[in-house]
Amino acid sequence: MQFRSDRRGFLTPTKKYSMPRLRHIHLKEYPYVVTTVTVKREPIFEKSKAADILLESIFFGRRQQWYYLLSFVIMPDHVHLVIIPREKNISECMKSIKGFSARRINALFNRKGSIWQGGFYDYILDSEAKALSRMRYIEDNPVRKGMVTHAEDYGYSSTKFRGETDFTKFF
Q: Disulfide check for 76: which of 4, 43, 92, 169 has CB 3.0–4.6 Å away?
């Protein structure tokens, strides 16, 4: 598979609809920015019930202490997270979030099969400046896409649920 750099400096596959099968580095106590995408970029999360299920999956992992949740945004066809793994490594965290949300969404909409592309992108944030920059970037995603005027107006973002994140423990 061939890759190219996107405008943010992340490697992206040149082939449509596939996520790379790269080994993930598992470091505790470091924040990761994670992106995962739906199959064929289907806008599943335009449906509020589907977005609510994913939101609950994210909060469930935090309550189980699988990770610290710093920031997130659920877009119609993908999700961005900034998490610090705790009880599970990054791969286990994503497997749990994706698996739980897929099973519940499939049951709700009487569908079968994967809703998520295999794999996910992750990037270790090795400084406070990088972490804050990436969090701001993902929280502004709905504004850049023209979905809302202000990030705080978007219903599926950590800007709306700051009290249910671990942001204040670290910043």
A: 43
